[in-house]
Write a structure and sequence with these properties.
91% of the residues lie in helices and 0% in strands. The protein is mainly α. It has a single domain, classed as Helix Hairpins.
Length: 150
């Protein structure tokens, strides 16, 4: 009996590889998103710390240049936060796009897997039918041999 060989195995492997690659890319994007969120959180904490430092610093007599430092520093941090939020938005859009691509890739893999299963079942039925025909033929030959001996 010949073994089942699916003609589209190569294509199935390519599609499965594409699906795995997309999963890896999604993981990387999620890591980037989390890193950006952590950066935004850290920048916000820096702003709060700066306000607290400004209050304690201004309690003592200080020079005008030092007083100007705090608003500039806070403005820079807020600009950094805005940039990080823009990056976060872009990463989330990219994540959504990759999720759609992954859904499509999963669908393509599933179609080929279903086709493979169908062809495998057909092959098994053919093999079983051929096997049963051989058994029936042997039974008939045996019956004919018994009849000729009698």
């Amino acid at each position: 009996m010949q073994k089942f060989k699916f003609k589209l195995d190569g294509l199935l492997k390519v599609r499965e590889f594409k699906e795995k690659r997309l999963k890896v890319e999604l993981g990387e994007i999620l890591t980037q998103i989390q890193n950006v969120k952590d950066d935004i959180k850290r920048l916000n904490e820096n702003i709060v710390e700066t306000y607290e430092a400004q209050e304690t610093f201004l309690a003592d007599p200080t020079s005008g240049d030092m007083v100007k430092f705090f608003p500039r520093f806070i403005k820079t941090k807020k600009a950094d936060i805005q940039n990080k939020e823009n990056l976060l938005y872009a990463l989330q859009k990219k994540f959504d796009q990759k999720q759609v691509e992954l859904g499509t890739a999963r669908g393509e893999v599933k179609v080929i897997e279903n086709l493979k299963e169908k062809k495998s079942t057909e092959h098994k039925k053919k093999v079983e039918k051929k096997f049963q025909e051989n058994i029936d033929e042997l039974v008939q030959i045996r019956r004919l041999l018994k009849e000729t001996k009698s």
